[in-house]
Amino acid sequence: MEVFAVVSPVFGARCTVVVADDRSCVVVDAGVGVTEDVVAYVREHDLRPVAVLATHGHVDHTWDTGALCEALGVPLHLHAADAYRLDDPFGTLGLLGGAAPHDRGGPLAQAIAAVGVDPAAYRPPADVRTFGSDATRGRDEDTVLELGGLRVVARHAPGHTEGSSLYLLDVDGEPVAFTGDVLFAGTIGRTDLPGGDGERMATTLRDVVAALPPATLVVPGHGPTSDIATELGRNPYL
């Protein structure tokens, strides 16, 4: 199994291509400006893409999903509770995104414009496939996604957003968790944006994150990788 990562110039959001032994692959989190590198890697290595996965609906992780899904001919998968964010990526972020629905004048739009991308150029993917419930309370059971040669467990992990999810799989026999903005090395994602909830995050950290096997490699949405054993020992939120 192979793993290839691209870091977006906006907020350093990580995009990862995970390649199965049969050369099928999935892409986790398509942030701003990653499409060209991902498509080039897929073509260079003669891969068979089957899906793009979003750990949550914030636009720094979903900006390129429309372009990338179209280029690769694949659907986007994300939790149902975050699907609404695809239609108004800035307005659903509160003041980080803009002062009103569809406002493109906030800090995130400015950060996107600063790297030479027009904030008005965003388009959602045509084929969106959701899992879980769009309910705003509680936590859904795991969803198993059979994607080419990869078996991915989507585990609902609300708190940063309503539909934040971990994607769990084995890479060469070792457990890996793509944690998005739920868990970072040494810290966690913020809960003060619309849809965030500190109490739900605390429950997620206790019941979902801390329950993962200690050897699990943590691949967060921003920053360096870690593992659960290290985070249990040093992360003050765990």
From TrEMBL:
CDD domains: metallo-hydrolase-like_MBL-fold. Keywords: Hydrolase, Metal-binding, Zinc. It comes from Cellulomonas edaphi. Its cofactor is Zn(2+). The keyword Hydrolase applies. This is MBL fold metallo-hydrolase. InterPro entries: MBL_Glyoxalase_II, Metallo-B-lactamas, RibonucZ/Hydroxyglut_hydro. The keyword Flavoprotein does not apply. It holds the Pfam family Lactamase_B. PANTHER family: HYDROXYACYLGLUTATHIONE HYDROLASE GLOC. The lineage of its organism: Bacteria, Bacillati, Actinomycetota, Actinomycetes, Micrococcales. Residues 12-222 form the Metallo-beta-lactamase domain.
